Amino acid sequence: xxFEILISLVLVLSTIIILYLKWTFRYWKSRNxxxxxxxxxxxxxxxxxxxxxxxxxxxxxxxNTAKAKELPxxxxxxxxxxxxxxxxxxxxKHILITDFQHFTDRLPFVxxxxxxxxxxxxxxxxxxxxxxxxxxxxxFTTGKLKMIFQTLVDCTNNLPHVLDDSIKQKxxxxxxxxxxxxxxxxxxxxxxxxxCNCLKNPNTEFRIYGKKVFETGIREVVVxxxxxxxxxxxKLLRLQITKVDVEKFFMKIVRETIDxxxxxxxxxxxxxxxxxxxxxxxxxxxxxxxxNEQNVFYQNGLSLEEIAAQAYVFFAAGFESSSSTLNFLMxxxxxxxxxxxxxxxxxxxxxxxxxxxxxxxAIQEMTYMDKCVNETMRKYPLPMxxxxxxxxxxxxxxxxxxxxxxxxxxxxxxxHHDPEYxxxxxxxxxxxxSEENKNKRPPLTFxxxxxxxxxxxxxxxxxxxxxxxTIIFISGLRLGILQTKVGLACLLxxxxxxxxxxxxxxxxxxxxxxxxxxxxxxxxDAHKV
Length: 529
Ligand code: HEM
What we know:
By secondary structure, the chain is mostly helical. The chain contains 20 helices and 13 strands.
C-alpha cells in the first residue's frame, strides 16, 4: 500500500514538474522570440551540462541563426531559466552602454559574508560595485602601469632558459603550460607581490593553487548552475563559488604579505601596494548611474578581505584571458610563418632603437604586434559576456519587455566570427586591424574586453571615468595585453618557432565551459635565430 502511494506521489510530482517545464518553455515563443527547440528537463543546455558543448559557442549558434532570419534578438533556456541573446548591433549598444542602468549586474553574484574572496569587482552588484569600481579605477592609469612595467619584464627572465632547455633536450614546448606559468609569475608578482618563479619551478604552491582556481568538476558545474537558475537558493544554501582550500591559501598569502610590509616598512611597485594604500582612503562616490540606490554612497577604506578579493580577481580575471591569448597567438604564428617573420623583424628593429631593452615605449611602437594581438582576441575571445536585467526593459522598436531577473548573454564569439564584419572569419589576418579596416566596421563589433561601464578594468576606456569628482583619462596599454606583448617580444627576439606534429589541428575546445579552453595543448618547437 505504502509503495503504491509512493509511486503515485512520484508520478504526480513528475507530471507537475513536466507540465511546469513545458509551460516555462513557452516563455520565449509566447513573446515572439526565436529560440532553438528546448528539451526536457535541461532546456537548451543539456550538451553544455554534460561537457559536450561550449556555452559561448551555443550562444554563437543562436546569434547566427537569429541573424540569418534577420531577427534582432533570440533566446535560450538555461535549464528552465530564459536567457536573452541580443543580435542587432544597435540593441547591443543600448544594453551595454546607453541603457546600462537596466543591466548593471552580471551573474553569478555573491554574498560576501560567506564567500569573501568572491566579493570582487566582477561579481558585486549595484552601488557596492560602483563604489569599488570607482576606487580601483585609478590603479589602472598609464602612470601606474608604467610603474609596474619593469616587474613584467623581470618575469620574462626565465623564459630563455625554458626555451634553451627544450632545444637542448630536443623536446617540444607545451605552449599552454608555458603561457600559464609565465602569466602566473606576472600576476602573482603584480597582484600579490610574490615572486612565484613558476617558469623555473612548475610545482610551486602558487602554481598549484592557481591551477585549482580553474579546475572543473561536478561542483564547478552545479554551483554556477544554481546561481543562474535560482540566486535565492544559492543564498539559502550559502553556496560558495570559491573552493575552500583556494580561499584559505589566497587569504593566508595576502595576510602574510600585508603583515610583512607593515612590520618591515617596505613597499613594492605592485597592485598589492596600491590596494594597501587604499586601506585608509574614504571615498564619496556618486552612484547615480544605478537607479533606486542612494545617490551618494560612502565607501570606507578597503578591509583585508576586500584587498584579498581584489588581488584574487586580478589573478582570476587576468590569468585565463592573458595566458590563453599568448597561447592562441603562438599557435597562429606557427601556422602562418610569414606573419611570424614579419613580427620578429618588427620586434628586433624596434628593440634595436631602444638599446635592445624591452621598454614600455618600445612595446607601444610595435604596431604590427598590436594588430596580431587584436586578431588573436577576435578569433579567440571570451565567447560570451554575461549581464543581468536589473530593471524591466522595453526593447526599442518592439513590444518585447525583458523582465527584471532575466540573464542576458552577449554573443561575442558570434559577432567576432560574423562574415558581415569579418569576411572569411576563420582566417588569421592581422590586417583586419589596420586603421582603414577598423574604421570600416560599425562600433561594438570588437568586444574582447566587453563594453560600457562594466568593461574590463585592465583596459583603455574610450570614455572618461569620473572618480571622486576628478576626471581620470585612462589611456595607454591594457595590463593583460601588455603582459602578452612583453612575453611575445621576449620569445620572438631570439627564437623561431614551428608547429610540432603532436598538436591536434584544428584546435578543439572543451565542452561544458564558459571560456574557450583547449582540449589538447599546443606543442611547438623552438629554434635559435
Ligand atoms: C587579455 C587580457 C584580458 C581580457 C581579454 C579580459 C577580458 C575581460 C572581459 C570580457 C570582461 C567582462 C567585461 C564586460 O562584462 O563588459 C572583463 C572584466 C574584468 N576584468 Fe578583464 N580581461 C583581461 C585581463 C585582465 C587583467 C590583467 C585584469 C586585472 C588585473 C582584469 C580584471 C578584470 C576585472 C576586475 C573585471 C570586472 C570589471 C567590472 O565588472 O567592473 N582583466 N575582462
